[in-house]
């Protein structure tokens, strides 16, 4: 597994239909270069004679048009020099967004270590997640890496992705379902476990689940559900106790009269005449 010298690009960039395949490949190459690398249409064309300078220039224009490649021209009032710097992004930039400030010339300002320009102590930022939560997220990623070796992470990558794993622990989904969502459908070779997991942790996060349905206790013998309110033991059928059958009482006048006659016959051995 490659652990250094690689570039991770989102699928939305590689599948941006506004860009030609040449522009997409050129963007991937430029993003792989270290900061400060010197490349222009001529040097790129020299390295890609099959495309040529015109093809490279056209691809760069596409990247400029859609915000992936930004040129910034600055003028140094002290030296009078004009510099043009280029910035390459893996996310399209808003044309009105401020660009990173170029390094200026002149003497550095000297101040006390640990103090702001106004002399106040620099506040120490509190971590957004407590250590206990980070440990929970890291533990989940560690278990995932043991089940699916393609997603095994280094310690640094685990700690970096742990905050993204926390919502998964609180959304009400079982850990087996989490493993299925994060580990299923992996490519045959994974070059960047951190890149794939970082994308899936954000993109495939399930919606918050409602409270689980109540679970009824089971009979210790036949495992049928016990009646509501009975939390343990065995059901009536397994105890051998026949449930009492309620006897329906007569409800009409004729039925009551017939019942009285039957009682009199059985008690007196004869027929009783009832006055009506």
Number of β-strand runs: 2
Helix/strand/pairing category: mainly alpha
Write down the CATH class of the domain at 11-88: Mainly Alpha
For the termini, the CA-CA separation is: 103 Å
CATH architecture verdict of the domain at 11-88: Orthogonal Bundle
Work out the oligomeric state of the chains in this entry: single chain
SSE series: HHHHEEHHHHHH
The overall pLDDT average reads 75
Rg from Cα: 39 Å
Give unreliable regions as ranges.
101-128
The major β-sheet equals: 2 strands, antiparallel
Strand content: 5-15%
> Would you give the CATH topology of the domain at 11-88?
Arc Repressor Mutant, subunit A
Strand order of the largest sheet: 1-2
Number of helices: 10
Percent helix among the residues? 25-40%
Report the principal-axis shape: elongated
Throw out a few tags for this protein.
Arc Repressor Mutant, subunit A; mainly alpha; two-stranded antiparallel sheet; 39% helix; 276 residues
Task: Describe, in plain words, how this protein is organized in 3D.
The protein has 276 residues and is mainly α. Helices cover 39% and strands 5% of the residues. It has helices at 11-14, 21-32, 41-47, 52-65, 131-147, 155-169, 175-183, 193-203, 236-239, 253-268; strands at 69-75, 82-88. It has a two-stranded antiparallel ribbon with strand order 1-2. The chain starts with 10 loop residues before the first helix and ends in an 8-residue tail after the last helix.
